[in-house]
Amino acid sequence: SFLEKMSKEGDMNLIGQFGVGFYSVYLIADHVTVVTKNNEDDQHVWVSSADASFTVSKDPRGNTMKRGTSITMKVKEDATEFLETDQIKTLIKRYSEFINFPIFLKVTKEEEIEVPDDSAEAPKEESKKESDDEKKEDDVDVSDVDEEEEEKKEAKPKTKKVKQTTSEWELINDTKAIWVRSPSDVKDEEYDNFFKSLTKEFDGPLDKIHFTAEGEIQFRSILFIPKKAPSDLYDKLQAKQNNLRLYVRRVFISDEFDDLMPRYLSFIRGVVDSEDLPLNVSREMLQQSRVLKVIKKKLVSKALDMMKKLAEAEERAIETEEEDDKEEVEKAKAEAEGKKEEEKEEDSEEDSEEEDGEAAIKKYKEFFDAFGKTLKLGIIEDTKNRKKLAKLLRFESTHTKDGETVSLARYVKRMKEGQKHIYYIAGENKKDLENSPFLEKLKKRGYEVLYMTDPIDEYAVQHMDEYEDHKLMNATKEELKFGDKEEKKEKKRREKAKEELKGFTDWYKGILGDKIEKIVISNRLTTSPMAVVTGTYGYTANMERLMKAQALNDPGKYNFMASKKTLEINPYHPIISELAKKVKESSEDESAKEMAFLLYDSCLITAGFDIDDQTQFNTRMMKMLRKELEISDEAKVEDEPEDESADEKEESPADEQDGKKEEL
Question: Is this prediction's pTM over 0.70?
Answer without folding.
Answer: yes
